[in-house]
Amino acid sequence: MSMLNVSSSPHLRSPHNTSREMYNVVLALLPATVFGVFHFGLHALLVILMSVVTACGTEYVFDYIARRPNTLWDLSAVVTGLLLALCLPPSVPLYIPFAGALFAILFTKCFFGGLGQNFMNPALAGRVFLLISFGTAMIDYSYDGVSGATPLATLNEGGTVSVLKMFLGFASGHIGVSVAALCVGAAYLIYTDTIKWKVPAATLVVFVIIMGIAGPGHFAPLYIGAELAGGGLILGAFFMATDPVTSPMTGLGQLIYGGLIGGLAALFRLKSGMADGMSYAIITANLIVPLLDKYIIEEPWGVGKPGQVLPSEEEMANKKPGIAIPRSALVLCLITAIAGVALGGVYSLTKDTIEANQMAANLAAYQAVVPGAENFAYDEAISASLEEAMAGDYYADGAYGKTRVNEVVAGTDASGNIVGYGLSVTSMEGFDGEITLALGIAADGTVNGISFTVINETAGMGMKADEPEWKAQFEGVKVDSFTLNKSGGSTADNEIDSVSGASITSGAVVNAVNTGLDFYHNYIQ
Amino acid sequence: MSLFMIIITAALVNNVVLSQFLGICSFVGVSNKIKTSFSLGMAVIFVITIASAVANLLYTLILEPFGLGYLQTIVFILVIAALVQLVEMFLKKTSPALYQALGIFLPLITTNCAVLGVALNNVTDGYNFIESVINGFGTAVGYTIAIVLLAGIRESMVDNDVPGPVQGAPLVLFAAALMGMAFFGFSTLTLG
Amino acid sequence: MNKNVERLYNGIVKENPTFILMLGMCPTLAVTTSATNAIGMGLSTMVVLIISNFVISLFRKLIPDEVRLPAYIVIVASFVTVVQLIMQAYFVEINKSLGVYIPLIVVNCIILGRAEAYASKNDPVPSIFDGLGMGLGFTLGLFLLGAFRELLGAGTVFGIQIAPSFYEPIAVLVKAPGAFLVLGCIIMVMNAWGISTRANKMVEEGCASCAGCGTPGTENCDKKEEVKA
After folding, report:
1. Tens digit of pLDDT for each residue in A356-386?
2. Are A453 and A362 in contact (CB under 8 A)?
3. pLDDT of residue C218
4. In angstroms, rounded to a whole number, what is the distance separating the alpha carbons of residues C152 and A104?
């Protein structure tokens, strides 16, 4: 009697088994592979072959020595070899793909148990191994006599790049350089439901947001386009981060994981000299996946394990999918920590931009009083001195009345030489309250002039201080301080005629100016 | 460097376990369970932060002015041992629940290279009081991150079909190697 | 075998601190980036080990049991400071490359472990030989690791180019992750050859204490066991 195949439920038949998925990935990578060989030449093909053959060979030999069933049918070794080759520079010596593929398969996969049991993406682990070990060879992107400055490197140095060329792949870079070809493949993978789309979605969204806020080109489409098209971002986001073995199982986990990759990739892009940040971003995110999978629980869809006592109907109805209660604190901590770090990172990245915005408010005034300056910036040493000097409520404990120095900027010309300083000073003793002005002092100590930023004095009286003839008294003189002459008819450089009928206003202005001068003489000169 | 940057640098860029190799014994020994790893990490943060503060005070107020800098090793290690004893007694009395969770780890931290290493590094790097405390805190946070991540990985590998000779220590060391490679990326950052 | 020679054999081979007992992991991983550093560290540790073993053994009957750990620490720390001062004076280059790991000899599991496991229970002269044996074993272990990493990771040994010029050094081996890799490979090979090492037990049972890890299965490890549940 023939043996009937008896097995317990659930039976789930689907066209998705690992080798089918891997086959889809290989298909999806073909356009980019073909383009790479076509664009970079024969050596690129050799690199690809060496990588794939070594990967498969390593797995085969290992299975043989360890007396395990051969696993090559799964095609994941082929995928690893191919992915690794696609992120290598096209003219690397052949020992590079050999060593990289060997390390990737043996140390990242086989030693951890083999198929489906690695926690880190093998291709990227291999790539990082190569980056750390053979640094010089790995950053040489020249091919066939064409010099190796990648578009991203050019962009970093302030040059311009052709985003279209980067997108199509007619630029220097690693073998899988054609973003267009990769997108075709990625579209195929999403269409066949082969990859977890939430991961690249989260990655790209977070990456674009952070690069837009903190990158030099902000949200300019050409800049964002170039950043997206370069540095293996697309290859990593759609083909590496989505590796079924090393990415989270739950939807929420995938979003967190993808977002983290995007954030780290942006961080490395902005704050590190290398263009390989995507590789490190992904393998760092890999480390968190076991924790994500452990603490995020989704609605179970199958039966429990044999021998497990199943909860009753009411219990099942009450148990909602979500995060397990006792662990919620830990997950909350993790999320808070990630958020905190991300926020802190964003803050430090955006600090300069925010500072620039602060300054913009007073910019017009500074430009008026420091002619010849193209840029204004804060000087750390001066700002530190300012903090010290303004430790109390008023400057020099009220030596000039209720005055303050708000900020000091240094104005530089196109060559970076300091042409003068802009000081924003305030006196609270105007007739109608606060008077704030920008005082410009040239590099040689001459007072350039003043420009009011806050003045609410009486029209026709105190407001006359804001007239060019009155302000001109401060222009082009080199003095240590000014004195107010209430009776008018001043002759000396340092005497200022009071606005008739508005001596209080005038006095406040003079005090404010003297405060600025005092600060300049004591802390800047 | 701004204080926030000190924390990030201490925790990630110069990670105490993966870059400086301090605290390896407990790193490989305790990381087989996420829960205990997290508890150990909390205890380490507690002890290292306080120890950094006390060590810095001792150095700046007593050792350095009297030219006794060379005594730092002895003084620091004694302070750490005493501190751990005090903390243990304090916990036992005031919070039995916390003592249950953290207490057993405390004596084991005394001889943890990381605590003494951080205290000594604070002196070498010339940090003032606030910077020492923040640096100690950041270092310990980095330790906690590393050990919890490794514990997560180890727990997920429990049912793996690991080849014979790799089972045990080599597996953990290879996992640590891969973690180290991932953290290597942080060392290329120029922050602050 | 004469007791003292037996101590030597034990420390260098049978219970080699680096490969069998897995003690002093922190400096083992940190300073084996070159053969020179490895020997420098090994010899410094050996000197401290010999002296502290001798002194502790000499006074073993006088040190009260409850305070023995702090007492050992003070003794060891003093000698470490002495060694450190001598190195700062006469061996400046090595002192700079070894850096913070010299004072960390204080908490090196080997020193406190041997004090606890042997010196506190035996006569001074065998204790000296125990220290000598363990020290030599440690130095040997460090040297093998350091030479291996330096050779493959930089192509040199003791700074002298040994590898042929076509060999591309695998730089990761002299960086931080490489330390874990090399040590893991060595233990993997030992496992395959059936050489038993405490390493596998250590990662499972989690002996987080160094003072109690002078010999396998000591009280602190057991204490950790019973509260683990």
Report:
1. 666 666 788 888 888 888 888 888 888 888 8
2. yes
3. 37
4. 19
Number of domains in chain B: 1
Q: Which range marks the domain in which residue B42 is found? A: 3-184
A10 Rama class: left (phi>0) / alpha (psi -120 to 50) / beta = beta
Report the alpha-carbon distance of residue B171 to residue C179 in Å, rounded.
14
For A113: left if phi > 0, alpha if psi spans -120 to 50, otherwise beta; the answer is left
Tell me the C-alpha distance between A138 and B9, whole Å: 26
Q: Complex ipTM, two decimals?
A: 0.88
Select the residue of A108, A112, A345 nearest B162 (Cβ to Cβ).
Answer: A112
Question: With an 8 Å Cβ cutoff, is C175 touching chain A?
Answer: yes
Is the whole model's pTM more than 0.90, yes or no?
Answer: no
Instruction: Look up residue A370 and give its two tokens.
Output: 């420091």
Residue A467's CB is within 10 A of a number of other CB atoms, namely: 10
Contact C181 B168 (CB under 8 A): no
Three-class SS state of A470: helix
Which SS3 state, helix, strand or coil, does residue A143 take? strand
Contact C105, C48 (CB under 8 A): yes
Tokens, residue C87: 């190195």
The strand pairing partners of A399, in sequence order, are: A401
CA gap A207, A217 in Å, rounded: 14
Q: A132 CA to chain C: closest CA distance, Å?
A: 5
Would you say residue B191 lies in a domain? no
Tell whether B192 is covered by a domain: no
Q: Are A365 and A451 in contact (CB under 8 A)?
A: yes
Q: Which residue in the set A95, A107, A129 is minimally distant from C168, CB to CB?
A: A95
Residue B66 lies in a domain: yes
Is residue A102 within 8 angstroms of chain C, CB to CB? no
Determine whether the interchain pair B170/C188 forms a contact, defined as Cβ–Cβ distance below 8 Å: yes
Sign of the torsion angle spanned by Cα atoms A58, A59, A64, A66:
positive
Per-residue pLDDT 10s for chain B (192 aa) are: 567 778 888 899 889 899 888 888 788 877 888 888 888 888 888 888 988 999 999 888 888 777 777 788 888 888 888 888 887 887 788 777 767 766 667 776 766 778 888 888 888 877 788 888 999 999 999 999 999 999 999 999 998 889 888 988 899 999 999 999 999 989 888 765
A191-197: long-range pairs with CB below 8 Å, 24+: A192/A24, A193/A16, A194/A16, A194/A21, A194/A24, A194/A25, A194/A28, A195/A238, A195/A242, A195/A244, A196/A242, A196/A244, A196/A247, A196/A254
3-state secondary structure A192-239: CCCCCCHHHHHHHHHHHHHHHHHCCCCCCHHHHHHHHHCCCHHHHHHH
Is B151 among the domain residues? yes
* Cα nearest neighbour of C154 on chain A: A133
- Residue A293: other Cβ atoms inside 10 A: 17
Sequence-ordered list of residues with C-beta below 8 angstroms from that of A261, at least 6 positions apart, any chain: A199, A202, A203, A206, A236, A237, A241, A278, A281, A282, A285
B51 close contact with C: CB closer than 8 A: no
Question: How do strand A418-430 and strand A433-442 relate by DSSP bridges?
Answer: antiparallel
Q: DSSP string spanning B119-171?
A: HHHHHHTT--HHHHHHHHHHHHHHHHHHHHHHHHHHHHTTT----GGGTTHHH
Q: How many residues does chain B have?
A: 192
Which residues from C are below 8 Å from B70, CB to CB?
81, 84-85
> Angle at which helices C124-154 and C176-192 pack, to 10 degrees?
110
What is the rounded end-to-end Cα distance, in angstroms, of chain C? 44
Average pLDDT taken over every residue of chain B: 84
Buried b (16+ CB within 10 A) or exposed e, A147-166: eeebbbbbbeeeeebebeeb
Q: How far apart are the first and last CA of chain A?
A: 105
Q: Are strands A495-497 and A433-442 parallel, antiparallel or unpaired?
A: unpaired
